[in-house]
Write a structure and sequence with these properties.
Blueprint (H helix, E strand, L loop, with lengths): L2 H25 L5 H19 L11 H18 L1 H8 L3 H35 L2 H27 L10
């Protein structure tokens, strides 16, 4: 499986999560405002996983720019995820592209979003801030769900399945 196949598969998983959540939102009556708000937050997180992870931009007119951005982030991420860095260093150029396709969005979401949300949730809990506790739990849950879906796919397809413990 080459890097484009991996990108396409992960984008499809991400879009599937977005579509499934949107269907739940559309089926939720407007008078259930709290539930709709939760679903809107969840949907926004799934969309963010595709956009901020740069997946939704792969293959488009700005593909070269996005690949360069991914490579720059990936070089940084290898310092924070040494096991990934060890594996990456042993790969040839084509394998490096595949490895990056398999892991860049995951590591980006962990590093740039999830870690911050976990910290902000702890602060909200310490302050007894119910509104932010509600929102951060949904955000964290959605990101973790997306990461789990990507990990399951990598494991099932034996595409560099590396376990990350939080």
């Amino acid at each position: 499986m080459n890097y484009l196949d991996i990108d396409k598969a992960l984008v499809e998983i991400t879009r599937s999560k977005c579509n499934e959540c949107k269907s739940r939102l559309d089926a939720t009556p407007k008078d259930r405002a709290g539930e709709r708000k939760a679903l809107l937050i969840e949907y926004g997180m799934y969309t963010l996983c595709g956009n901020a992870g740069l997946q939704f931009n792969i293959g488009g007119p700005r593909d070269v720019l996005y690949r360069k951005t991914r490579q720059n982030f990936f070089a940084y991420a290898m310092t924070k995820y040494p096991r990934h860095g060890e594996i990456y260093a042993t790969l040839n150029d084509d394998e490096k592209l595949s490895f990056m396709a398999a892991w860049q969005a995951d590591l980006f979401m962990r590093d740039q979003l999830l870690a911050g949300y976990v910290t902000e949730l702890a602060q909200a809990e310490a302050a007894g801030d119910a509104k932010n506790i509600f929102e951060f739990r949904i955000k964290i849950g959605a990101v973790r769900e997306m990461l789990a879906a990507w990990a399951t796919w990598r494991t099932e397809n034996n595409i560099y399945p590396i376990e990350i413990k939080e």
